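debug: dumping io for the single-chain case to check the tokenizer round-trip. Nothing else runs in this session.
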Amino acid sequence: MPQRCVTHRRKFILQRYSPLFFFYSGLLCSVPFAHAQTAIGPVTVGAGLRTSYDHTEPDGAPGTDKFQVDNVRIYINGDVTDQIKFMFNTDYDSATNKLGVLDAVARIEISPHFNIWAGRFLPPSDRANLYGPFFAHNWAVYQDGVQDGYPFVFQGRDNGVTYWGDFAKRRVKVSLGAFDGGSATNNSTVIGAARVQVDFWDIEEGYYLNGTYYGDKNLLAIGGATQFQSGRTATTADFLLEKKLRNMGVINIEAEYSNYNRLGGYDASYGKSQGAYGLASYLFPKQVGIGKFEVLGKYAKADFTHGIKALNPAYNQKTAEGNFSYVMKQFKARLTAFYTNTRFNAVKNDFWTAGLGLQVQI
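debug: decoded output
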């Protein structure tokens, strides 16, 4: 495989993007942000946008520059009664230039111990799937071959039903579900799904999760999830620690281990894959304008084995990511300069990507 020296290109990227980063930071400092979602009678409506400029350079091939609309979402929630609710969310598919049904959920929520969701939504799975791109901590989510490799119909979702509840003063979260196999894996057998999570410090209420709380919570959480269908399994274990250091900022450490055994995974040419990642960040305490700066680093390694054909040799993927973010209003408004470097020991070509990403939600 041809080798390439990228040192001068990385310096060029930093020199090129730094003025843009600080220009947009200054521009956004002057923008007043509204509260997320607007109430219209019993219905609340909101929206979210993730857009970016990416420069990607594969080894042995010309680089590409793209302005992308990564995600556009519309959120609609309403209460039928105090215990019966409805959620409908959409997401933009850049491949087809159309909005698709993201979530369509009938929610029966009797108490913290007893809740039933039915329709299309995120099944019990890893934390990374349960926070999605808008509530992830890092920008380049779902690119490492590790997190959120469960089978799905659209954007990690599947059609089915789940029971979930919080126990032990809401420190233990349990969810069990059954989901349509035919739409997710072309196997009509039902997919079973389960997750258990324990919060040792502050609690996380509700079904969906976050990748960070930007210091609003002190968290020490451990979770495990599995899905199974016709003797095939997908299993993950995840960890999140977040600690506010008084007037010294916020540290966050996130990790996950995954094992996709003929169910899910990132490469359909391989029956099995397993891997892990670690993420660490530091949110600076000093406010600059309307926001704070944050640095983040992540490293992941995934192994792909049991090729479905004799010509599919085993290989591994190593992914390193760095973020420098200006967090203006947590997940409602943040600007991120990002860099990822993806390396393979065989089969695929190495590449790196650098760019700027902007997220806004109302």
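debug: round-trip ok. The chain is about 10% helix and 55% strand.
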